[in-house]
Amino acid sequence: MDKLVNTVRPYAWGSVTALPELLGQEPTGEPQAELWMGAHPGDPSRADRGDGPRRLDELIAADPEGELGAASVARFGPTLPFLLKVLAPGIPISIQAHPSLDQARAGFAAENALGIPLDAPHRNYRDANHKPELICALGDFDGLCGFRRPADATALLAGLGVPALAPVIALLSAEDESEALSGALAAVLTLSGPAAAEAVRDTAEAIGKAAAEDPDGPYAPYTRIARDFPGDVGLIAGLLLNHVLLRAGEALYLGAGVPHAYLHGVCVELQANSDNVLRAGLTPKHIDVPELLRVVEFASCSPSPLLPVAVGGTPGEELYPVPIDEFRLSRFVLDGRERTVGGDAPQILLCTAGAVRLTSADGSVLDLARGESAYLPATGAATVLSGAATVFRATVTL
After folding, report:
1. Distance from C-alpha of 324 to C-alpha of 303, rounded to nearest angstrom
2. CB–CB of 375/98 below 8 Å?
3. Contact present, 368 and 351 (Cβ < 8 Å)
4. CB 11 within 8 A of CB 285
5. In the annotation, is 279 catalytic?
6. Are 157 and 169 in contact (CB under 8 A)?
7. pLDDT tens digits, residue range 99-119?
8. Residue 137 contacts by C-beta under 8 Å, 6 or more apart in sequence?
């Protein structure tokens, strides 16, 4: 077992206080957005096995089968297939979508062939992997996820009474749903100059007025966007998407091509081991509209919270089922009784409340406080969890 030393990414959208509170640290006064736990080369965790801290990706590369197990290497390759994070948006995260595996491989190869450095601000593909993801709220957490039905988006936009939105509303009336949604999003994202400024200003004013009249109404979530991103066409793009509010313990799965944005709160996120993001607004970062439109899945959906289910054969474990094997997220809410996790696959355990003691088959012990995490190689041996704590378990399905 390795207690992990993890990196906090200080993106501008991060909360100043949420991650320091989780980690038991004093706020620095700067935004702290994402806590990374894993072996992505962009910010790998570190572990000390007696010879000083070493990068987890390098430890795994030195002995893939010994760290990950032969079954995981055969199925997913010689790298840790997942990346575990804690996200803490203080202001909305950019509207974005992630590529499929084929799209990521093609895009990564194309940008490499063009000689675009991996850390270039205008680069779209940082690696050759897809980025499906699962988020689980640690408290109230709200965001935007997937397209509204064109008729619903039309009603929301028309209800604002903003003349500048008429062309977008007209595009939403197309008989084919995909054509309606793609046309509307493209029209919004290609707005520029005085026309964009007028449309966003008038939309923001109308949203503010509607939300003041009905604080619990459908426009209220967008006041945060209007406040934090004045003049950004992402405000209008966001109206095309469903608003979702998760309560503590509820989750949401997002596959390739699903447009989304996270607005506020703290969540655990488990995803494939990738950092590929195509953005649509609410960000100062690079936006490649043609590539985004190529990646997005133009289909409406009605996202609903995903609830955990009991795992047969593993008392106390609650699984968040997803249609992918590269990552598997479950939760233990420990009440003093011992619980056991198997060791046939690599895993990361994250304590988000209380304190937990991990005891391995050889009798070694590792204590985790709130905000701390551990990496468990695939030794085949079980690990016992004890204490009063909430512990998330990230691993793979074999």
Report:
1. 18
2. no
3. yes
4. no
5. yes
6. yes
7. 999 999 999 999 999 999 999
8. 246, 247, 248, 249, 250, 251, 265, 266, 267
The answer, yes or no, to whether residue 313 has pLDDT greater than 90, is no
Beta strands in 169-237 (DSSP E): none
Rounded Cα distance, 387 and 374, in Å:
16
Contact in structure between 346 and 395 (CB atoms under 8 Å):
yes
Cα–Cα distance measured from residue 261 to residue 79, given in angstroms and rounded to the nearest whole number = 28
- Active-site hit among 123, 126, 279, 331: 279
Place of tokens 């995490």: 373
What is the pLDDT, as a whole number, of residue 312?
82
CA dist., res. 332 & res. 201, Å (int): 47
Angle ∠(174,177,178) on CA atoms, nearest 5: 105
Q: Give the tens place of pLDDT for each residue, 77-100.
A: 999 999 999 999 999 999 999 999
**Buried (b) or exposed (e) across 273-305, using 16+ Cβ within 10 A?**
bbbbbbbbbbbeeebebebbbebbbbebeebee
Let me know: does 306 contact 252? Beta carbons within 8 Å: yes
φ, ψ at 209 (rounded to 5°): -65, -45
- Bridge partner residues of 180 (DSSP): none
CB of 87 within 8 A of CB of 267? yes
Report the pLDDT averaged over residues 9-31: 96
**CA separation for the pair 24, 27 (Å, rounded):** 9
- pTM score: 0.94
Distance CA 17, CA 31 (A): 8
Q: pLDDT value at position 204?
A: 98
